Amino acid sequence: MNPRILIVDDEPNIVVSLEYLMKKEGFQVAVAVDGEEALVKIATFKPDLVLLDVMMPKKSGYEVCQEIRANPEQAGIKVMMLTAKGRDTEVAKGLALGADAYVTKPFSTKELVAQVKAMLAA
Amino acid sequence: MSSWGIVLAALGYLALLFFIAYKADRRADAGRSVINSPSVYALSLAVYCTTWTYYGSVGRAATSGINFLPVYLGPTLLFTLGGVVLQKIIRVVKANRITSIADFIASRYGKSHLIGGLVTVIAVIGIVPYIALQLKAVSSSFDLLARYPLLIPPLRDGSLSFLTDSALYVALALAAFTIVFGTRHLDATERHEGMVAAIAAESLVKLLAFLAVGIYVTYGIHNGFADVFNQARGEALLDALRVNRDSAASYGGWFSLTLLAMLAALLLPRQFQITVIENVNEDHLRRAMWMFPAYLFAINIFVLPITFSGVMEFGLGLDTDTFVLTLPMAHHLPWLALLVFLGGLAAATGMVIVETIALSTMVCNDLVMPVLLRLRPQWLQAKQDLTGLLLNIRRGAIVLILLLGYLYFRLAGEAYALVAIGLISFAAVVQFGPVLLGGLYWKGGTRPGALAGLIAGFGVWTYTLLLPSFAKSGWLSETFLTQGPWQIALLRPQQLLGLTGLDEITHCLIWSMLANMGAYIAVSLLRMPNAIEAEQAIRFVDNKQSLRPGNLRASAADLLPLASRFLGADKANEAFTRYAQERGVGDIEALPADADLTYFAETLLAGAIGSASARVMIATVTEEGAPVGIDEVLHILDEASQIRAYSHQLEEQSKDLERASLELRAANERLQELDRLKDDFISTVTHELRTPLTAIRAFAEILHSDPKADIEDRKRFLGIILVETERLSRLINQILDLAKLESGSGGWRIGPLDISDAVHAAINAISQLAQDKRVALEEALHGPFPIIQADGDRLIQVLINLLSNAVKFVPAETGRIKVEAFVSDKEIRVAVADNGPGIRPEDQEIIFEKFRQGGGNILTGKPEGTGLGLPISRQIVTHFGGRLWVESQLGQGATFFFTLPRTAEETAG
Predict the structure, then answer these.
(1) What gap in Å lies between CA B605 and CA B582, rounded to an integer?
(2) B807: three-class secondary structure by DSSP
(3) What is the mean pLDDT of chain B?
C-alpha cells in the first residue's frame, strides 16, 4: 500500500505544489487548510507522514505537532514541519515538540521529496 | 615734694615688680618654680589687703570704731575653719581644668554660656567700684604727697578736668602696667607664675610700709601701745570701740560684715584666682591656714594706734582715710611718707593687676568668645591662630574695666569713704555664694535655678546698693533714696519693704541673700537636674575624678539629636529604637541616661565621623572628659560641616547615578522593545515574502524538472507563478511605502482638493472589481465641500484601500457598498459602509496593525492582501490631522470612517 501523506497549509498555491509533488511520487494525499482540520484529517485519514505548516489560522503547526505526539495511537506518524519562519529558535522549538524534520520555505522540491522518501523508509 | 620725684619712685617700684615677675617666669620655664612654696602662696593671698585695708582701715576705725575688724575676721575664719571647703574647691577646679569663678559656676550648671556670661557681667559691675577705690586712693595719696609739707589735699569738685585729674593717669598707667604684666603671653592653664611672685612681693612691701608707720607712730610719737590707749582713753576715744545699741557698730552689722568678708575672701575674682586657680599645690593651703590670718593680724595691729594718734593729732576734720600718710608728713618724715605712698601703690597695683587679669580672662572666655562663636563662627574659623585675638580681647577688657573704674570714681567716688565703696563690691560678689557653695554640696541645683538666684541677688544688690551710691553722688535724684521711686515708701531702696534700723550693707545682704537663695532653691526644685547637670553635680559634689573614657553619661534626649545630625534622623531613630528593645525598654525616652547608653551612642557616631571626633562630640553633650576648647570646637565644626558637605555631595551623586541608571534602564527597555518590534517586523516581513516565493520556486522547479507535464497543468502553474510574483512586488512596494510614511519623508504632493473628486476617482478605480463580483456600489456626497490642502493621490489610495477591502469581504451578488461624505464646521467626514461579515470588537483596533488581517476566521482561507493596507491608510489620514476608525457589529457589516480637518482649508477659495 502506498504511503499516505497529509498536507497541511493555509496557502492554497503552496498546497497545490505539494499535492502535485507527492502525487507524482505515488503517495496517497489528503489536504487540510488549518490546524483543526489537520487534527480531524489525521484521525480519519491516518497518514504516515504529515507536511505541516507552522503559521496557520485556528491552531498553529506547533500545537498540531504537540497533539500528535501526545496521542499514543499516532505515535508512528512522521512529522515534517514546513515553515517560512526559519530562525534557529523556531527550528529548535519544532524539533523539541517532536517534529522529525524541519524544512524552511522556500524549499528545494528535489530535496523535499528525497527527504520525505527517506523518512518513510526509516 | 616734687611730683616728678614721686612719679619716678613709683615707676622705679613698678620696674622692680616687673623684674621680679620676669625672673619668676624665667625660673618657672626652667622648672625651678619660685611660687612652689607655701609661704609665697600665703603671701600672695594677701592681695586681699588693698588700699582699702592700707588706708581705709584707719578711716573706718576712726568713724565706726571696731567695725573695721570684721573685714579681716571673715577671711581669718574662712582659712582657719573653712579649709575643707577650700580644699574641695581646689580639687574640683584642678580636676575640671577651670579657669575662673565664672567658669566654675557655668561649668557646675551644665557648662552654660549664659551663666558664665552673667557671672562675668555681675563680677565686672560689682568690681568696678572697688577698682575706683584703688584709683581714688592712689591719686589722692599722690596729690597729698605732692603738696608736702602742706597737709591740705587739693579740693576736688566737678570743675576738675579730665586732663589734670591724676586719677585718670593712674588708671591709664595701671592699665598699661597690667597689660604688659599679665597679657604678654597666653597660658593654657590661666596660671601666671610671675604675677604670683610679684604679688607676694607686693604683700611684703605693703606690710613692711604699714608696720613702719605703725612702729613709728606707736613707738616714735608715743611710748608704746599702752601709752596710745591711755591717751585715747583720756580723750574718751575708746568709747567708739564699744559695740552697743547706740554705737556705730552693731551686733547685726558685725555679723553681716564678718559673713560678707568671709565669702568675699573666696568669691572676689582676684581671691578666687589666687587662692584656687594659681594654687600649685593643695598642701600649701595648710601653711596658708595660719600664715594668711597672721598677715591680716599683723597689718591690722597698728590700725588703732594710728587711728587714735591721728584723731588726737588732727581731730576728725582731716580725711581720716589719709592718717597713714599724713602722720609721717606732719612729723616731717618725707622718706617715710614716700615709703607709705609706695606701700599704698603696692596695695593698689596688686589688687588691680590680679583683679583685671581675672576679670579680663572671664570677659574673654565667658563673654566675648561664646558670643563670637555664636555670631561669627566663620570668621573665627578662618583665623589660623586665635591667641593674638584672645590676648587683644583681654587687653581691651583691661583698659575698659579700668576706665569704668575711673568713671565710677568720677561719678560716685567723692560721696563715699574707701571702706563703704569696698563693701559695695563685697556685697556684689557674695551673690555668687549660694550657687557656688550650693553647687558644691547640693546635687539638686539646676541651671535655671542658678540663673534665677544670680539674677535675683544681683537685682536686689543693684537696687539697694549700686543705685543709692549713684543717688548719694547726685547722679540720681536724692528723692529716690528718701521717698522711694514714684514716692512709694515701701520701695525705698535702703529701707525696702519697711525694713529699717540696719546699715545699708546688712540691709542689702539680708534682702539679696533672701532673694538669691530663695530663687536658686525654688527654681532648682521645679525640675529634676538633666543629664549634664546631674553629671556635673557628681563631679562637683562627689568630686569623682575617676571618670574614664567610656564612662560618660548622657540622656537619650541629648544623644539622639546629636546622632541625628550626623546619621540622619531616620537612621538614628532606628538605631536607638533597636537599642532600646535590646535593653528591654519600651521606647527611646525610657532609656536610662547611663554609661552604656552613652557608649552606644559614641560607637554609633564613631562609625560616621571616626572615634576621636565622636568622643569629642559626645563630650559636648555630656560635658565630660577634657573640657572642649574653643579651637577644638571650631575644628570639629569645620570637620563636621565638611563631612556633611561631602556626604551631601555623595548623596547627590548617588541620586544622579540612580536617576541616570533609571533613565538608562528605561532607554534600554525602549530599545529592546524597538528591537523586538523590529525583529517581529522583520520576521513577519520575511514570512510574508517567503510565502509567495515558496510557491514561485516550487512551480518553477516542477516546470523545469518535468517538461512532459500536461499543458493544462503548465498553464495553471505559470498562472500561479504570475499571481504570486505580483503579490510579491505589491508587498515590497507597500513595505517601502509604509517605511517612507513612517520615516516622515512621504514625498507628499500637496495641492487644493475637493474630496468629491477623490471619491469619484476611487470609485472609478474600483468599479471593475465590484462589477466582477457583482457588488452594488453607491455614493452619497452631501456637499458642497470646502477645498482643502491635501495630497489627492494619497487620499485616493486610502479610499481605494477601503473600497477594495469592502469588495473583498462582502458576499458576491448581494454585496452592497456605500460611500458617503459629510461636511461640518470642523471637518469633512467620509464613510465607507459594507454589508460584509463585520469585525469582532476585539479585532477592530488590531486590523490597523501591520500584517494583522481580520476575517481569516470568517472566510475559509486567508483573505487576500498584504496586511499593510489599513496601517498605510491610517498613516496617511493621520498625516493630515484626521482620524481613521471602524464601527462594526458582527454579522451586520462594517463602516470605516475617516475625517479631514477644515484647518487645511484653502482660504483663497
Answers:
(1) 19
(2) helix
(3) 79
**CB-hemisphere CA count at 13 Å for B812?**
5
Asked if residues B808 and B865 have their Cβ atoms less than 8 Å apart, the reply is yes
Write the residue in B690, B699, B857 that is nearest to A57 by C-beta.
B857
Q: How many CB atoms lie within 10 A of CB A108?
A: 13
CB A29 within 8 A of CB A19: yes
pLDDT digits (tens, 9 = 90+) for B374-419: 777 666 656 656 667 777 888 898 899 988 888 888 776 566 655 5
CATH number at residue A86: 3.40.50.2300
pLDDT (tens digit per residue) in B852-890:
665 443 333 345 666 788 888 888 888 888 889 888 888
Q: State the smallest CA–CA distance between residue A72 and chain B in angstroms.
A: 30
Find the mean pLDDT for residues B331-338.
85
Short-list A120, A108, A95, A26, CA closest to B694:
A108
Q: Which residues does B308 contact at the CB level (< 8 Å), separation at least 6?
A: B228, B229, B231, B232, B235, B237
Give the distance from residue B682's alpha carbon to the nearest chain A alpha carbon, in angstroms. Answer: 11
Give residue B105's identity as a one-letter amino acid code: I
Instruction: Give the domain range for residue A8.
Output: 4-121
Q: How many helices (H) and strands (E) would you count in chain A?
A: 5, 5
Bond into B493 cis (ω within 30): no
Residue showing cell 604684666 = B181
Look at domain B3-152+163-412 and name its CATH class. Answer: mainly alpha
- Secondary element (H or E) of residue B823: strand B816-823
Q: Could you tell me if B153 and B322 are in contact, meaning their C-beta atoms sit under 8 angstroms apart? A: yes
Check CB contact under 8 Å for B696 and A57.
no
Q: Into which CATH architecture does domain B647-741 fall?
A: Orthogonal Bundle (1.10)
Q: What is the DSSP letter of B384?
A: S
Grid coordinates standing for B778? Answer: 453607491
Q: Which of B333, B336, B335, B303 is nearest to B320 (CA)?
A: B303
Which of B411, B517, B506 lies closest to B464 in space, CA to CA?
Answer: B506
Cβ separation A17–B862 shorter than 8 A: no
pLDDT reported for residue B243: 56
Chain A residue with CA closest to B717: the answer is A17
State the Cα–Cα distance between residues B610 and B343, nearest whole angstrom.
59
Phi, psi of B403 (to 5 degrees): -70, -35
Chain B contacts of A25, Cβ < 8 Å? none
Task: Find the helix or strand (DSSP H, E) in which B326 lies.
Answer: helix B323-330
C-alpha cell at B296: 591680716
Residues B673 and B667: beta-carbon distance below 8 Å: no
In this complex, is the C-beta atom of A110 within 8 Å of any C-beta atom belonging to chain B? yes
For Cα atoms B763, B768, B772, give the angle at the middle one, nearest 5 degrees: 130
For the record, the C-alpha cell of B335 comes out as 622718706
Q: How far is it, in rounded angstroms, from Cα B58 to Cα B65?
A: 9
Say what the alpha-carbon torsion angle A75, A77, A82, A83 is, to the nearest 10 degrees: -20
What is the distance in angstroms between the Cα of B860 and the nearest Cα belonging to chain A? 9
Q: Looking at chain A, which residue has its C-alpha nearest residue B697?
A: A106
Domain ranges within chain B, ordered by starting residue: 3-152+163-412, 431-545, 553-620, 647-741, 748-904
Question: In the CATH hierarchy, which fold is given to the domain comprising B748-904?
Answer: Heat Shock Protein 90 (3.30.565)
Q: How far is B736 from chain A (nearest CA, A)?
A: 21
Tell me whether the omega of the peptide bond preceding residue B485 falls within 30 degrees of 0, making it cis.
no
Q: Is A105 within 8 Å of chain B by CB?
A: yes
Domain count, chain A: 1
Res. B587: pLDDT tops 60: yes
- Which has the closest alpha carbon to B296: B37, B47, B86? B47
In this structure, the number of other CB atoms found within 10 A of the CB of residue B760 comes to: 16
DSSP class of residue B148? Answer: T
Of B686, B706, B856, the CB nearest to A84: B686
Q: Give the CA-trace dihedral at B635, B639, B641, B643, to 10 degrees.
A: -170
